[in-house]
Amino acid sequence: MNYFEKRTFEGDKVPGLTKWLYTSSGMFRDAAYQFVSLFLLSFVQFFALGSVTLEEYTQMFLAITIIIAVLRIWDGFNDPIMGYIIEKVHFKKLGKYRPWIAMGALLNSLVTILMFWVTPTGWAYVAWFGVSYFLWDLTYTINDISFWAVLPSLSNDEKVRANLTTILSIFISIGTFAVGGIVPLLASGNQGPTYRVVSIVVSVLFALSQLILVIFMKERKQDEIIEQNNEKMKFREIFTVVGKNDQLRWTIIAILLYYTGSSVLTGAGLNYFYFNFGYAEGGTYQLYFTIVFAAATLIAQFIYPLLVNKLKIPKMRLFEICCLTTIASYVLLFSYVFYTGPATFALLCVFGFIAFLGQAIISLILYIMIQDSIDFNEWKFNERRESSTFALRAFTAKIASSLQQLILYVFLYASGLIVYSNAIANFEREFMNNSSEILNQYNAFLASDPIEQMQLIIFHIGFTIIPMLLFLGTYLIIRFKYKITEEFHIKMCKEIEERKIRYKEENSGEKTQNG
After folding, report:
1. Among 100, 279, 359, 365, which residue is least crowded by beta carbons within 10 Å?
2. φ and ψ at residue 314, rounded to 5 degrees
3. In this structure, what are the phi and psi dihedrals at residue 218, rounded to the nearest 5 degrees?
4. Cβ atoms within 10 A of the Cβ of 437, count?
5. H-helix or E-strand spanning residue 220
6. Helices (H) and strands (E) in the chain, counts
7. Distance (Å, rounded) from C-alpha 373 to C-alpha 285?
8. How far apart are CA 86 and CA 148, in angstroms?
9. The predicted structure's pLDDT at residue 268
10. Counting beta carbons within 10 angstroms of the beta carbon of residue 284, is it exposed (0 to 12), middle (13 to 18) or buried (19 or more)?
């Protein structure tokens, strides 16, 4: 028996080292993902596409938007296929998930660095973007599906899972804050070179954290019945699992709407702060707003166990409260465009805090719901399908990302603000590392063609009203279609355990007779 074969455990209690290595590694992998998610388009928009005319800029930015959309459609097949491969292809001496986690992290880290350091000019860059983005997405999918499939496989106890999910979410929030808060401050007026250096830092940390996890974690021994069913799994079943399991199906649809809604405001990124507060202070204001985001998200992680375990608020009731509160906060965020009184940024932070707090708790509940839907699948069909299920979750995240990019392009174009984006890109590329000259050039451009309030109103519709409608859809689906309450989940788990005990007794009896 080799080193990795020994690193397994039984039961629902997760070993301490595995618990903390698994959850803490989420900080570095999410920091790497968020860096690309938050800043790749800023890198493209405000640096890589520079030194071209407005017409070329608009065409190339549209081409990149289409590339992302097409690759997300490909993800509709890629993610479930990868989930199927992970379910079927086991490196028995290395464990079910370890090899895929390591392979995805190492390859993705390499591709991330190349994406920011290889920047040919003109349409050659658009072609390179398509190739590199495809490779980045493919390699991250390998790591992402295997990493998240570990979570429900570690324990069937909902309290243990909720604890793991909460701790993991805290570390993810720290990684998001570190990248989303510090990078804009460092990159102000010097985006291209800064993003390149950061790409190396986050990629190395991502790769190292995943390698440490793979070497020292313990995987839970898989149930014999489940493993036998996984081995019999046919290719077509990767597409039918969501069709058979209605609770999984409605959860995935709700997650897609939620991911899209929650990513739209962050997808505005520097655009929002440049156009509302100016180029000189945009990065600083984004840093402050990211601190608000991080504070709200971290507070949510700590108060969620209190609300559920101490105050005994049912998760469905808490979900309803948070959805309605978040919807109301987005209405306030839209109204902010009309407010010109004192303490305007402070007011924006208040509205944002309410929105981010509600979103973070919604996210936690949806994570638990998708894990419960895996138990539902085992209860109903005697199959768990962790990898295939989390492939669907990864698919929804990527579809949401492409919709986020589409919304950004549509509202930049509809509002006419794409003109100012093009101006910043040209000045950044021409006067790289000279922030004062970039500022002078942009201010002169702005003075000759100032941004009008109607342009900002159109822009705000895209990043407040659209998410509000998506959150409303999320609420309605869960409210009327999701049925796995705490009581029902306890009943399911009890019946699953009884089934396993009967199987062991029957199997033991057969072995005795044969002996």
Report:
1. 365
2. -60, 145
3. -115, 135
4. 14
5. strand 219-220
6. 19, 2
7. 40
8. 12
9. 77
10. middle
**Confidence band, pLDDT 50/70/90 cuts, at residue 443:** confident
The tokens of 514 are what?
A: 């044969």
CA pair distance 36, 139, nearest whole angstrom: 13
Q: Which residues pair with 219 in a beta bridge?
A: 8
Cα pseudo-dihedral 133, 137, 140, 141, rounded to 10: -170
pTM (predicted TM-score): 0.71
* 151 token code pair: 């979570």
For residue 91, the cross-strand partners are 95
The C-alpha atoms of residue 329 and residue 358 are separated, in whole angstroms, by: 9
Kindly write down the DSSP assignment for every residue of 104-168, as one continuous string: HHHHHHHHHHHHHH---STHHHHHHHHHHHHHHHHHHHHHHHHHHHHHHHH-S-HHHHHHHHHHH
Residue 203: count other Cβ atoms within 10 Å of its Cβ. Answer: 26
Asked whether the beta carbons of 82 and 117 are under 8 A apart, the reply is no
Residue type, 65: T
Torsion of CA 369, 375, 377, 381, to 10 degrees: -170
Residue with tokens 């986690």, as numbered in its chain: 101
In terms of Cα–Cα distance, which of 89, 81, 367 is closest to 239? 81
Instruction: State the pLDDT at residue 35.
Output: 93
The 10s digit of each residue's pLDDT in 194-216 is 899 999 999 999 999 999 999 99
Local structure of 91: helix, strand or coil? strand
Which two three-digit tokens encode residue 65? 């938007």
C-alpha span between 390 and 373 (Å, rounded): 11
CA nearest 352: which of 321, 330, 337? 330
CA-CA distance, 283 to 273, in Å (whole number)? 7
Q: What percent of the chain is predicted at pLDDT more than 70?
A: 91
As a whole number, mean pLDDT of residues 266-290 equals 80
Positive or negative, the CA dihedral 181, 184, 186, 188 is negative
Q: Residue 433: pLDDT band by 50, 70, 90 thresholds?
A: low
DSSP label of 433: T
Provide mean pLDDT across the span 328-334: 93
